[in-house]
Each structure stands twice: as structure tokens, then as C-alpha cells.
Amino acid sequence: MNQSLPVDLVGVGLNASDMLIRLPRYPALGSKVEFRSADILPGGQVATAVAACQQWGLRTRYVGKVGDDVAASIHRAEFEKLGIEAHLLTAPGCASQQAIILVDDAGERTVLWKRDNRLTLRPEELGQEWITNARALHVDGHDTAAALVAAGWARAAGIPVIADLDDLYPGVEALLENIDYLITSRDIPGQLVGEPDLRKSLPTVRSRYGCRLTAATLGQEGVLAWDGAQFHYAPAFRVQPLDTTGAGDIFHAGFIYGLLQGWALPRRLDFACAAAALNCTAAGARGGIQPAENIERLMAAGVRHAPAFDLSKSL
């Protein structure tokens, strides 16, 4: 195994080949709808976040698994074009992860996906140097056993671990005990602790698993975070959405970028919200990744959605 050079961010998690189908409206049962376009684009939670950070000037590494199909070649070519150090392990005899994404004229998307079990990344396939020669680790928890090993190595080396969690995978609670910055979709904190109110569930999750920060992304309502002492809320920015695919992935990338810049938490959340909003103005998970200066301009002059939380009111 070749020695890995130091990088700013290493991502261990999902990649996907997205067939993006744009429609005027979501089809009703039994209907026929003419689609506007169909494109095959690279995606996947961690792979997309790593790609964004690379485009913002960070040195990055990606670790994941692909099949032995044309989609794998697309992923390899994309990582090479961006300058990402990619460790793409091959699962012979199967297709890479696929997603069919239906996007309506409001920009809302519905995702259909398929992933062969042979694409599971196993702990023994990881290189410890891939993880410990980085300033931060990003995981999505899908291949939980491998993510847990990677997070353990990172924690032992004093490297912060960020997690993007949109489902409760088997064994995920052990992984959560090794996460520093847990940023989930809206419903995950409530599912973990049986409390739908985020102002109660986020502190409980942080206390139970020992995270530095727990947060939930809320789509057009922005993001709510708990740092152990107080809540931080950032409303989303108003844009004309074309496709919301990848918004959460880019939010995580923005948060990681700000973390590695040493920014205070409010600025990290604002940057992440602005980056995610701009990504929604183009097609595909990575279609609207904007330069950092464009994101900063939206932060400075952009219009926000009405706040969904009033933190001045007690629980």
C-alpha cells in the first residue's frame, strides 16, 4: 500500500450514479408524463461533499466502493478531473450504486435507489493511513462497520469526525459514540431518542452519545444546532430552486470547510446554508457548487426565509 500524503479532508462513504429526470410535475398513479430531460451525473452523500471541498481549495481524499461497470469509470474520471485522491475499491460482477431522481418544476426531488450488497465497504479494506493523514473525517454511516473503524482511528489520532446521517442503519449507535459533529436530517434525532421536538431531542442526543455538536438540517427552514450550551439557528437563503438534489451533501461540505477554516459556529452554519441554497439553482447533486466568494456574497446580501424557530422563547 502506497503511503498517503496529508490531506485536509478524508471521506468514507457513499457514491452514486444519478439518473436525473426532470418533469413538470410528479406523476400521478397510472398517468403518463412527458419528461423534460434525462442526465446521468455523479452523486452520493460523502463523494459529493468531498468534491465540493476540493473545489473550494481543500486537499481531499475519498474512500468508497464501486462496481465494475461504466458508472465506475465515470466516478474515477470525475475524481481525477477534480484532483481528489480516490481509493475506489471494485466489487466484481455487480453494478455501482444507482439512483433515479425525479425532479419537478418546483425543484423537489424523489429518489429511487438500488445498491448491491457486494458494494459494502468492509473494515479490512480500509487503510489506516488514509484516515489518520487527514485533518477531518466525514462519514455517512451506511457501511457502518467500516465507518466505525475509520471513526475510531480518527478519534484516537485527535481528528474530528463529521457525520451525515439520514437513516438509522444497523449498529449506528456505536458509530455515534465516535462522532464529534453529528448533522442529520430532520427526523433522525427524534427517532434516536423518541422525542419529536428538536429543541429537546438535539440536547438529548448530544448528551447520550458525547458529540460536540448535534444539528438537524430542515430544508427551506434552515438548520438548528445545539453545542452543549446554547442553540444556534440559521434560516435558509431564498433562491429560485431548479433541483434540491445534493443540498444536504453540500451543506455538510460547507460546514466542514468552515470548521477547517477555524470559523465560529454561526458563520459555519451560514456558509453551509448559502452553499446548499446555491447548489439548488442547478441540476444534479454537484451542479450548483459555487466558488467560495459567490457563497460569501449570498451570505452578505441574500434574502432569508422566515425563521422557523424563535430561540428567545423558552421550551
Mean pLDDT figure: 95
Approximately how much helix is present in the residues?
25-40%
Percent range for β-strand residues: 15-25%
Tally of extended strands?
13
Cα end-to-end separation: 53 Å
What's the helix-strand series?
EEEHEHEEEHEHEHEHHEEEHHH
The number of distinct helices, counting runs of at least 4 residues, comes to 10
Outline: globular
Structural class: alpha/beta
What does it look like?
It is a single chain. The protein has 315 residues and is an alpha/beta fold. The strands form two sheets. The protein has a nine-stranded mixed β-sheet with strand order 5-4-1-8-9-10-11-12-13, sandwiched between helices. A four-stranded mixed β-sheet has the order 3-2-6-7. It has ten helices and 13 strands. The mean pLDDT is 95.
Summarize the structure.
By secondary structure, this protein is an alpha/beta fold. The chain has helices spanning 45-55, 70-82, 128-132, 144-156, 172-176, 188-193, 198-209, 247-261, 265-279, 292-301; strands at 7-12, 16-22, 37-43, 60-66, 85-90, 98-103, 109-114, 134-139, 161-165, 181-185, 213-217, 223-226, 231-234.
